[in-house]
Amino acid sequence: MTIAARSILFVPGDRAERFEKARASGADMVVIDLEDAVLPDRKCAARDAVHDALASLTEPRFVVRVNSLDTDWHADDVRALAALPGVAGLMLPKAERASDFAAMREAAGGKPLHALIETVSAILNLADLVTAPGLSRLSFGTVDFQADAGIDGDRAEIDHVRTQIVLQSRSAGLAAPVDGVSTDLSDDAALESDTQHARRFGFGGKLCVHPRQVAVVNRAFLPSDADVDWATRVMSAIDGAFGAVAVDGKLIDKPVVDRARRLLATHDAFRSAA
Hints:
Blueprint: E1 7-12, H1 19-23, E2 29-33, H2 43-55, E3 62-65, H3 74-81, E4 87-92, H4 102-108, E5 113-117, H5 120-124, H6 126-129, E6 135-140, H7 142-149, H8 159-172, E7 178-179, H9 188-200, E8 205-208, H10 214-220, H11 225-238, E9 246-247, E10 250-251, H12 254-273
Parallel strand pairs: 1-2, 1-8, 2-3, 3-4, 4-5, 5-6, 7-8
Antiparallel strand pairs: 9-10
Helix pairs in contact: 9-10, 11-12
């Protein structure tokens, strides 16, 4: 089973000394950030530093978040970095429509593309955006979305948007989407609660802004011992069975069996990746 990344850790593009440290954090995916994490007067220098670091690699290790389409840096970011051997994919901030990815797809040569959903327009255009060739996953930039929409709050206030992102991802055959950052770096309990909330809504990962968040996010996306026990008993109950089968007094039908299989496959894949 190929598993989608649970923890997606951003590292500033102008801090090359942190790239490998970010990989050592246990994050499933590291995104080198040329957008929000880099000041305007350092954009070009950061691009050069990323180029030097990733050109010397012999295998793809990092996703790069390039600058958005409406900036002077976007085209040069894509042109300079997309084809480098160390680039595992490209992330586009403020993605809003499928056509936004045309030039990126051509330059990336088949590498996965990631869309960061941060605007009201992106949500209104989701059905089109998810049809972009080469698109592998959506990430929800909750902080920027709230600012654009004029919404104050990142739970119930935007849960209906989370549902749209999950359903459109599922419809398009994309990996389960990634939820936005938790900005309080000192509150592990809140981070775990946020991650569990995202998981219940059908998200498969969460954006991280500090290495200390990685372990909490990874653990929160791992099926619980109780879930694994239940799934194991379901699979044992249907092994060689004929007719109706019940576990814990509840009828086991195909959707239940499918959920049990997914839980066990996820558990095994995450454990083996640990």
